[in-house]
Design a protein that fits this description.
Layout (H helix, E strand, L loop, with lengths): L3 H12 L2 H15 L4 H18 L9 H11 L6 E2 L1 H10 L17 E2 H16 L5
Antiparallel strand pairs: 1-2
Helix pairs in contact: 4-6
InterPro entries: DD_EFCAB10, EF-hand-dom_pair, EF_EFCAB10_C, EF_hand_dom, EFC10
Protein name: EF-hand calcium-binding domain-containing protein 10
């Protein structure tokens, strides 16, 4: 059974999304592998702080060309769409926990590149904005 202090700590971490923030920072650190990790982390935190006031340009591991490459891997014959299952698996694989489970095209089991990119960008924006309460 958790103590009152442990519950307070858990609530604090959840309220301020500290675990998500640390996860994102750690992922960026491993992805970029900067020579000066402390300076890199400070820069990322400064970018997050700036993004908080502008509501855009959150630091993120994936850009549009990365999303297009992921889609291309899932659509090697260039049909122009992927299945709903592929869409969900891809978004889970890039670390998104919350996204539209039935986006445009889901009724026909055909998710287009534009829908995939939109949903991925929206999810990444929410994920990158972890410091927001």
């Amino acid at each position: 059974m958790a103590t009152s202090r442990e519950l307070d700590a858990k609530n604090y971490l959840e309220k301020h999304k500290i675990l998500e923030l640390m996860d994102n920072l750690t992922s960026m650190l491993f992805f970029h592998r900067p020579e000066r990790p402390c300076e890199f982390l400070i820069t990322q935190l400064e970018k997050l702080k700036l993004a908080r006031t502008t509501s855009r340009d959150y630091p993120c591991l994936f850009n549009e060309s990365n999303l297009e490459a992921i889609f291309g891997i899932l659509d090697p014959t260039r049909q122009g769409y992927i299945t709903l299952g592929q869409y969900k698996e891809a978004l889970n694989t890039i670390g998104l926990k919350q996204f539209d489970a039935f986006p445009q095209g889901a009724d026909y089991n055909r998710i287009t590149l534009e829908t995939f990119k939109k949903e991925a960008k929206d999810g990444l924006l929410k994920s990158s904005a972890t410091f927001k309460s």
